[in-house]
Design goal:
- About 15% of the residues lie in helices and about 25% in strands.
- The protein folds into two domains: about 15-65, no CATH class; about 70-115, no CATH class.
- By secondary structure, the chain is an alpha+beta fold.
- Strand 2 and strand 3 (about 55-60) form a beta hairpin.
Length: about 120
Amino acid sequence: MAAPVLPPIGDNIAAWGNNLTAYLRRQLPRLYFKTADDNPSEDGIILWDTTNKYAVVSHDNAFRQLATKQATPPSSVGSSGDVAGMISWDTNYIYICTGSHDGSTAIWKRVALASY
C-alpha cells in the first residue's frame, strides 16, 4: 500500500491546519489498531495502540509514539485510563504521565513554561 501524502506546510499555518484536518478525516478509516502481532518493519504506517492509548508510527524498525494532546490532568494522581507516555499542556505547564493510574500514586510530572 502506498503511503498517503500529507498536506505540505506552507507560510499559512491556519490553512495548513485546515488541510491537515480534512486529510485526517479522509484517512481515518485507514487507521488500524496495533496488535501484539504487528511489527514495525514498514516505515510510515500509523496505528492506534489500544494498550497504551496513543497513536504510533513505524520508523527505523521501531514503533514511535506520536505526541497527541491528552486532557490536562486534574492532579498529579491523574484519572482512570491514564498511562505512561501521555502528554498534555496548557498555558502554564507541559505535563508528562510517567505511570499507570492506580488512584493514589503521583504519575503526572509537569514543567513550567516561561518566555524567552
